[in-house]
Amino acid sequence: MGQDCAVASPLYNPAAHRPLEGEPWSESEARAAVEAIAADAIRAYRGPELLWPNASADLDDEPDRPFRNVYFGAAGVAWALDLLARDGLAPQLPGLAELAATLPGAFRAAPELVQLEPPPAPSLMFGESGILLAAEEIDADVTRRDGLEWCVRRNARHPSLELCWGSPGTMVAALRLWRRTGEERWREAWLDAADWLLGEWREDVWVQDLYGQQHKLTGAGHGFAGNAFALLEGRDLLEDARAGEVMLRVATALRELAVEQDGLAQWFPYAGVETERRPLQWCHGSPGIVTSLAALAPDGETDRLLAAGGELVWRAGPLVKGPGLCHGTAGNAYAFLALHARSGHERWLERAQAFAMDAAADVGRRRAASGRGRYTLFTGDLGVALLLRSCLAVDPTFPLLG
Please, what's the largest Cα pairwise distance for the chain? Predict the structure, then answer.
């Protein structure tokens, strides 16, 4: 199986991508790569106070501070390691339950990223909701759930109107607890946030109030696709007519925002605005659009556009920036898994597996060059381990979100 050669295109920046590398897909090699990533993270763990070494690319101004959020902090790493251990793909981190118990209180004592948002939102990716959710999934504790519910409800009307900081992310947490526990309070919390989110959907896409500026963003991390994903995931909680309206509006926006060329499709980061920056990654661009909206009802035009977006991801190739989930090769591969689940076509699974082996090789090269791994969920090595796990299980669920 070969990758088509990436050529100059107005849909993305070819310099941000590179040719596909890595060995052919092998289940045994994939398992070995997962175990190597997990073992490296376990060796690097420094206890519940110091946690893991930070990567300078994540934290230029605070290289030595222990971080606990799920995006680039200890909660995300611990959650991923626990999931891999439960699946028998890696050993369990010693002291994991103790770590999980310390994370919420330590975060409250030293809130993070206050320079971006003072006081910090109790968000999924960067705040207390994500930390409480990770701790609950590692070591279920009914006494912890009251705090998580309080965070979800407090974040229900966050003005950012996006996944990382806002209510769509904390809706994901509420939905996970509803599916797991059946407790009515989680369904009510999800519906309350969904009602407000839908009420704020006044234009083609939502308007984000983010970092002191307003934008109409389209992507999964900070825009339309992430919001649509949160609503689509819980559409069974909505009344049938409202769920149908959501599906129609999302599908309409998907079509209206698409930019097409030669059978390929891309969604630029700002709705209705063509800029020189045309990222092709999970947080902005086709990969996140495809992954987030793959649950749309079958429809010829929707199917065609999602497949065209996936084809662009394949033609462009892995990302130079790195192998991670948010803006790296692993995150892009989840678009292929989503298309495989939607269509049943084996080529999408094969492409996901090829990207997974490439990402694993990239992790190995970077670890050899720096002398250590990158210990984060969304920007580092653990996201690659979870992609390999997803390919082994043929599971399109994007980490933490499904």
Answer: 56
